[in-house]
Amino acid sequence: MSSSDGIDLPQKVLFSPDQLSLKWAEVHRIGAGLQNMGNTCFLNSALQCLSYTPPLANYMLTREHSKTCTLFHQQWCYAVLPGGALSLLTFLLRPIRCLTFLSFADSDNQPACIPTHFASMDKARTTSFIHQVFGGYLRSRALISVSVKCLNCKAVSDTFDPFLDITLEIKTSPNVSKALKQFVKPEQLDGENMPNHDECLFTIHRSANVLTLSLKRFDVKYLEHLDLRPFMSQSHGEPQLYRLYAVLVHSGLSCHAGHYFCYIKASNLQWFQMNDSSVSVSDIRTVLNQQAYVLFYIK
Fold first, then answer.
1. Can you tell me which residues the record assigns to a coiled coil (predicted)?
2. Going from the N-terminus, what domains does the chain have, and what CATH number goes with each?
């Protein structure tokens, strides 16, 4: 059975999206910084960005998850191990399955590249709490010629794939909007048995509540607000508006090494810079002039 947008319905829903609150349930004081335990600045920054994701923070503060979480009850094991804190953080982040947050966990000097695809997820897993917060669906539409005599006679084949973040190729794109336009640009299909003019089109079919954009270059312009509607399968309709709430920043002379820190928007709507153990007040003008590596937007 399929939903109204063509995506197969799961047989089981692990977490209802109706339980999500995308706004802070209450105002909290700013949290502490995180000590760099030896090349852990990327992990620190990723964890801070997650900590100031409103629906994730709201849920964790209810402690509902702690009652049944095996990781929560096993965490004491890591306290007595060498490097236990780092091992615990990596272990806790692993279920998110977001490779963006794990690919730099070992060193600040890792190459600045991340995988562009997630491991396949079955339908039930795409209804988990994490996917309800960060997840959406991409549509891959293949247009295949059905006759060598009629290049306009096309067969349409749609494939839907879940995502937790979107990695943007930005070699020739000066800003995020143009990078997204490039992301949904039709591509010609190659192959010995494929006639000319066959093509594949990627679009964002079901938008995420929290949109995570991974950039492969650090000098890209981005805005505080983003409308995702032009890049969706249904490109006409009500705007899909997002606002920036966290930026993971790269600092260094090359993309192959450097330091990572982040800016987050706290529950009191004040921006802060979180640089390992250092926490300082910031503002949106400063935030929008950074060498961003990962952008976090929320509906």
1. none
2. 38-298 (3.90.70.10)
DSSP state letters, 17-42: GGG--SS-SS-----------SS-HH
| Other Cβ atoms within 10 Å of 146 Cβ, number | 9
Is 225 catalytic? The answer is: no
Residue 77 known to be catalytic: no
For the chain, the straight-line distance linking the first and the last C-alpha, in angstroms and rounded, comes to: 28
CA distance 243 to 178: 18
Q: Please say whether the beta carbons of 97 and 164 come within 8 A.
A: yes
Considering the candidates 41, 49, 98, 262, report the single residue annotated as catalytic.
Answer: 41
Single out the catalytic residue among 69, 200, 255, 259: 259
φ, ψ of residue 274 to 5 degrees: the values are -115, 105
Q: What residue has token string 């032009």? A: 230
Beta bridge partners of 107: none
CA distance 93 to 50: 10
H/E stretch holding 246 = strand 241-254
**pLDDT digit string, tens, across residues 132-179:** 999 999 998 877 665 555 556 667 778 899 999 999 877 778 899 999
Tokens representing residue 223 in the block: 């805005």
Q: Which residues are bridge partners to 160 per DSSP?
A: 139
Q: Yes or no: say if 262 and 249 are a contact pair by the CB < 8 Å rule.
A: yes
3-state secondary structure at position 104: coil
The tens digit of pLDDT for each residue in 227-249 reads 999 999 998 889 999 999 999 99
